[in-house]
């Protein structure tokens, strides 16, 4: 059990519908956890539940030693949980620089550091959010989340719908953010090889329950198991790089 984030026997869903069933998991500070699973198994719902956007029926979420199960999303954000939703949600009529500045909270992440992580955003700093490509919007969405200086970052399918070259660029930035800068993250990602290359630990969900948990290195070294768990042949979308030890 981790004092950083510990989810204990969590059963949650929407209204009366139960999506997550008796989930228990821990994340340690500095670790990246990949959430894998087929469509509709509850990956996004897990992130939504950590953020406080679903109905929790049973179980508890402990964050930095405190029970936050009943805290609302704004309170969780104030306590240091950052969220990059699938929809990105950048402000279209603010420039890149303004999008970053408007959410800034004190801490190690600031505009120059975000530009260092995403040089493309530096080139586009005077452009409006609405003028950016999908990939640039995703970089801005991650940059905005970093500007709130979270202790934990939740990323929901950050690569979805992006061209392979942008996927490579984003994956490199996420690895740098997590492995070089030591940020703790939970990443939902459809491409298993990519997800495993960015993470230390992985869980595979099946119908709202944990079917498998283990190190990402072990799982990526076992394509037969990965294929069995995900029901598809895992195809490589980027060169896997083992996460740095820490
Ligand atoms: N807002 C909602 N209200 C009611 N049911 C929902 C809502 N969002 C998701 N669901 C249902 O919860 C289940 C899990 O969906 P979820 O989006 O968490 O799965 P997922 O693993 O992230 O899928 P995908 O990979 O397709 O994004 C699905 O049956 C879905 O229809």
From TrEMBL:
It comes from Pigmentiphaga litoralis. GO terms for biological process: L-amino acid transport. It holds the Pfam family ABC_tran. Keywords: Amino-acid transport, ATP-binding, Cell membrane, Membrane, Nucleotide-binding, Transport. Signal peptide: none annotated. SUPFAM superfamilies: P-loop containing nucleoside triphosphate hydrolases. GO terms for molecular function: ATP binding; ATP hydrolysis activity; branched-chain amino acid transmembrane transporter activity. InterPro entries: AAA+_ATPase, ABC_transporter-like_ATP-bd, ABC_transporter-like_CS, BCAA_Transport_ATP-bd_LivF, P-loop_NTPase. This is Branched-chain amino acid transport system ATP-binding protein. Gene3D superfamilies: P-loop containing nucleotide triphosphate hydrolases. PANTHER family: ABC TRANSPORTER ATP-BINDING PROTEIN, HIGH-AFFINITY BRANCHED-CHAIN AMINO ACID TRANSPORT ATP-BINDING PROTEIN LIVF. Belongs to the ABC transporter superfamily. Residues 5-232 form the ABC transporter domain.
